[in-house]
Fold this sequence. Notes:
Layout: E1 4-10, H1 21-33, E2 35-44, H2 47-51, E3 58-62, E4 65-72, H3 74-93, H4 104-121, E5 130-134, H5 141-147, E6 153-157, H6 165-168, H7 174-181, E7 186-189, H8 192-205, E8 209-212, E9 215-218, E10 221-227, H9 234-242, H10 244-256, E11 261-268, H11 275-288, E12 296-303, H12 310-330, E13 338-341, H13 350-356, E14 359-362, H14 372-379, E15 387-391, E16 404-406, H15 411-423, H16 426-442, H17 445-457
Parallel strand pairs: 1-2, 1-5, 2-4, 5-6, 6-7, 7-10, 11-12, 11-14, 12-13, 14-15, 15-16
Antiparallel strand pairs: 3-4, 8-9, 9-10
Helix pairs in contact: 1-17, 3-4, 4-5, 9-13, 9-14, 10-13, 11-12, 11-15, 13-14
Amino acid sequence: MSRLVVVSNRTADPRKSAAGGLAVAVKESLQQTGGLWFGWSGKIRSETDAAEGSQDLRRQTVGRVTLATLDLDQHDHDTYYLGYANGVLWPVFHYRLDLAKFDVQFAAGYRRVNQLFARKLMPLLKPDDLIWVHDYHLIPLAAELRAMGCTNRIGFFLHIPMPPPPIMAAIPEHEWLMRSLFAYDLVGFQCELDVTHFAAYVESEAQAERLDRNHLRAFNRTLHVAAYPIGIDVDEFVNLANGKEGRETFEAMREEYSRRRLLIGVDRLDYSKGLPQRVHAFRELLAQYPENRNSATLIQIASPSREDVDAYDNLRRQMDSLCGAINGDYGELDWMPVRYIHRNVARKRLPGLYRASRVALVTPLRDGMNLVAKEYIAAQDPADPGMLVLSRFAGAAEQLKEALLVNPYDAQGTAQAIERALTMSQEERVNRHAALLDRIRKQDVHWWCNAFLDALKGTETTAVASP
């Protein structure tokens, strides 16, 4: 059996519980076959170490898993991570060209760190290793490995959206980036729309030949592309809902808000999540449907995210202002319309909070998948479930069609959908929830991991592509 080698920007200790789908799936797969997880340690090297050129790998063995991590110096961190990955790729891939900072130093740092990763990873590889690279931080990694002579099967999964060709082409290095993807044997996306966008780009910009639905030919390489929507561990999340902290949170929320109907939003504080638009829609709900005043309460959790970036600081101030305004205009002595929490909430308590909420608002402006939507479904009481209001621009919308799909830019339309969710009959909620739960069980995180790796094992590495 081939050893699995996972490469991601950050690694996670397999002994600790994981919040994200990637960490859950990767830990399980690595433990099954024995494997290596390689990435950045999250630490910045001291100026002394950087001056001495120290870039030693740290290795730690946990069960059948070896963690291999390296530190970055401050310049590489600022150009590769803050600059290119989060200052160029993240906004552009989320359709926010206005927030992208195109700087030639960022692109150079991004390629330099990918070359560093390749140099450090290459000596650790065995001939039959299966390599799985994750996300936008490491798009050119396979091309760098190929240039060093790596002939292993290498797969790549993009966790964020793939933008349409005109937006992608705004990146000065777009041709190099997309050519780099052809050094992989398999490229996976979250949804079919992302596959369509990628195929349209390479057909128009690189004159790629579409061999069939899932194969593209360009740069003397045949690339397998497909959608593999990431899921959650449904049983694990149900167990959390039935666990001590989950039950305590549910009972506490039900008692505290016994006279209210709860709506819940759980997001990172990120401009892609549509948080201001969500608050505007909730305000529209109170204005157009006054029966919800002194009744409906929105609990919005917005955990801190990249607060050293100006766009995020501006978003935080905007949210503070919007939530304060709606509470000032509509609040009563015994009722505040919005409970806005700008900090992390313990993962074990989230299922209880989800179950106590009549409606979940998952309304990003653009999202690769969004696992909160799936967690909310898993946490519900099947006999009396809450209703999911979901942005049509989340990758999850392709799967979760029984949710109430909305355009988050349309405040009035979203308010109408929220009102429908609040007044929906129990029978309709039960039927919709049963269909949603069945789908997230069939395509859970284990399905996602197995489907991708099975497809990667079935590929054949052909002539290498130059970076």
